[in-house]
């Protein structure tokens, strides 16, 4: 299984657009950390919830 991580520090430089287009081109699922971190009304997820969400994705794509 191949995995790709796109890491860029500056906001607004096009990470999400790049990741979405790369996912479409390679036919792979894309997961955005912002979607896991930010709850409705821009409330931050707890470190525990954020970590659990990431672990769930890794398990899902690993088939475990």
Describe the 3D structure.
With 64 residues, the protein is mainly alpha-helical. The protein folds into 2 domains: 1-30, no CATH class; 32-64, no CATH class. 52% of the residues lie in helices and 6% in strands. It has helices spanning 15-26, 33-37, 47-62; strands at 38-39, 43-44. The protein has a two-stranded antiparallel ribbon with strand order 1-2. Strand 1 (38-39) and strand 2 (43-44) form a beta hairpin. The radius of gyration is 13 Å and the shape is flat. The model has no long low-confidence stretch (mean pLDDT 88).
Question: Summary?
Answer:
This protein has helices at residues 15-26, 33-37, 47-62; strands spanning 38-39, 43-44. With 64 residues, it is mostly helical.
Topology:
Blueprint: H1 15-26, H2 33-37, E1 38-39, E2 43-44, H3 47-62
Antiparallel strand pairs: 1-2
Q: What percent of the residues sit in helical stretches (DSSP H or I)? A: 40-55%
Averaged pLDDT: 88
The run of helices and strands is: HHEEH
What percentage of amino acids are in beta strands?
Answer: 5-15%
Count of distinct structural domains: 2
The main sheet comes to: 2 strands, antiparallel
Enumerate the strands of the largest sheet in spatial order, edge to edge or round the barrel: 1-2
Distance between the termini: 13 Å
Tell me the number of helical segments per DSSP (H or I, 4 or more residues long).
3
Q: Choose one word for the global shape.
A: flat
Low-confidence stretches: none
Classify the secondary structure makeup into a structural class.
mainly alpha
Total strands: the figure is 2
Rg measurement, Å: 13 Å
């Amino acid at each position: 299984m191949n995995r790709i991580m796109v890491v860029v520090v500056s906001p607004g430089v096009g990470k999400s657009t790049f990741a979405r287009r790369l996912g479409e081109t390679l036919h792979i699922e894309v997961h955005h950390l912002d979607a896991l971190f930010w709850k409705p009304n821009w409330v931050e997820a707890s470190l525990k919830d954020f970590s659990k969400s990431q672990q769930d994705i890794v398990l899902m794509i690993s088939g475990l």
